[in-house]
Input
Amino acid sequence: MIVMKFGGTSVEDATAIRRLTSIVRSQHHRQPVVAVSAMGKTTNGLLECARLAASGDLTAAREKLETIAAHHFKTADQLALAEDKDSLRQALGNRFDEIRATLEQIKQAGEVTPRLSDAMSANGELLSSPVVAAALRADGMKGVWVDVRPLMRTNDDFTRAVVQFELANPKLKEGFTAALTDGGVPVTQGFIGSTAEGVTTTIGRGGSDYSASIIGAALDADEIQIWTDVDGILTTDPRIVSEAAKVKTISFAEASELAYFGAKVLHPSTLLPAMAKEIPVCVRNSRRPQNEGTAIVRTAPPSSALVKAIAFKRGISVINIASDRMLMAYGFLARLFDVFARHETPVDMVATSEVSVSVTLDDTRNLDPVLADLQAFGEVSVERDQALICLVGEKLKFTPGVASRIFSSIEQVNVSMISHGASAINVSFIVADRDVEQAVKSLHREFFSQLDMATFEAPAVAQASA
Output
């Protein structure tokens, strides 16, 4: 049994969904479970509708929603069997009626509360999944729509709910095992779940990948496939470095670091459930299904490559706390980091000296109360518009001269923080946001001017010219 997760661009219209059905049919013998994201930019559109309703402009919200509805009905009509169309249109119509009712609630509330935000944004997957199930049936398979919400139990931390695995795992196993009987192909939703009371939740933007991994682990799947619009994990962002190459095989540890530190292919939490069960994850391109993609496994094959990939995160804030009370004091850092824990604000990097601490944040929703509480510890300053660059590779910590190569290649760029040694496979540092592209290009030239072809696949343009 395998889990196949398809992202928004893989279900954006009838053409994309036909590619999806072809991919699923080619692996029908492996008992696929299909998890889908919302069509294209539907989730953003629904949240814009919510924003308009909250501002009091319900008319504009409804007009925006009708555009979204028209696209879904058109796609459904293009894909479904004649005998399926009426029931599918009815199901979609009921869903849009619920969305309209939610917009009324938002208008009356005058704001988009986290609970109402989840009630809106969850609809993208609830709209796309019955269309995909119908498309599978039209292609000769037994597409079975499965509502994941009663199975994927979470807490009630709306917009970033935490899955309660002790409740979710047995429900997921039971629900999908039943749907797989007699050749069924379950089609379900990523990104969403529900509380014990049945209230819809979301597990955060990008959580569809995570959902697929959770489902795969609960079912002890043979493989989890993440189908997206890129060929796999690349050596860096191809929008900055056009000659970025595909990594053929990478370890769970390396891929997790890349996801957390900015690589957009995977959600940062995706690999955790798969790692626990040692289930391989494969990232593949739904527009080029003949491409093998990137395999993510417990232990990658030996490679001569020092660096596997370069990731980066923009929009980083650096908080600096200076205090003479740190000197020779015990318990100071524990009290300091308790501030971040109380405000549910994760820290990426930490640097300390005898009398100062610097930390980086990419989640600044609670920055103001964090700063207010930190004032009790000493002098506090904030550097905004920073970026974190991360190089990942199995040999980084134990290779002499690696730091010299990294920082000599970007000698024209100011580096304000460095983390090296805390992780055996990661070197990270902070630069100004405006310097990201220059730094990444220079680093890529330094470490990928020659490729180990056992580890990397050169870009299509380079292959064509070879």
Q: What stands out?
A: Residues 82-109 form the longest helix (28 residues). The chain has 15 helices and 18 strands. The mean pLDDT is 93. The radius of gyration is 24 Å.
